[in-house]
Here is the input.
Amino acid sequence: MFTLKTSLIIPTKNRVSYLVNTLNQIFDNKINFAEILIIDSSDRTYKNDIKQIANKYKIKLFETEPSTSKQRNLGIEKSSKENEYIMFLDDDIIFSGEMFYQMNKTIIKNYKDRQIAAYGFNQIQDTKPSLIEKIKSNSILNFLEFYPNKPGKVAMSGWQSKILNLKKDVFVDWIYTTACIYRLESIKNHRFDESFGIYSYLEDLDFSYYFYKTKKKFLYLHKQNIFTHFQLKEVVLNLEYMKSKIDIKLLKNINFH
Here is the structure.
């Protein structure tokens, strides 16, 4: 399994419940990584519980100020250089049980293709197109290359298209860091731009499009490689957490699926 040669990097901030559920899925499905690194930027209220989680699962824990770019950069720096891959994973992911096994088959099949810099998982999202998205899908705008009409493309205007609900495997121009796997040899000397700030909106577009411009490829898989974000509202979880200080052991029994 490719995960045995992979450093898993999970940035987190103030989301104890989400993080525990994500980790439980990994361990319950017996997905073994070479190492798991939690990069925490939580407020003081949550730091002790994040430390308990790291100790419970024997996970490496590092702390930094809030910024997904800084957190991922710290993860790259602290990860073992003896591994072949780095996987970025958000702390609030629900994934299919077959996701990693199907990805493993693809990585083995394409192992010799060094032009593939990273692999992406198929994000399933039940969304109705907004007015802005309907405007962006206008055929005239597509023809003028103002906005792309295919998934994962970057137009001449600089606008990028989303990568969601794929029906087939596709090569794309950029890749989400929500759930993706990079070859370490591709990114070992490259870093996320920390000037994007705390939330770092579109930092993954900036980071990954660099590789596309150097003739690298990104492959997204669709079949049985699906994941989504937790549907529970973060504010509700945090309010419940603040009221009751839910015990870590009890969190393991919560089913968010």
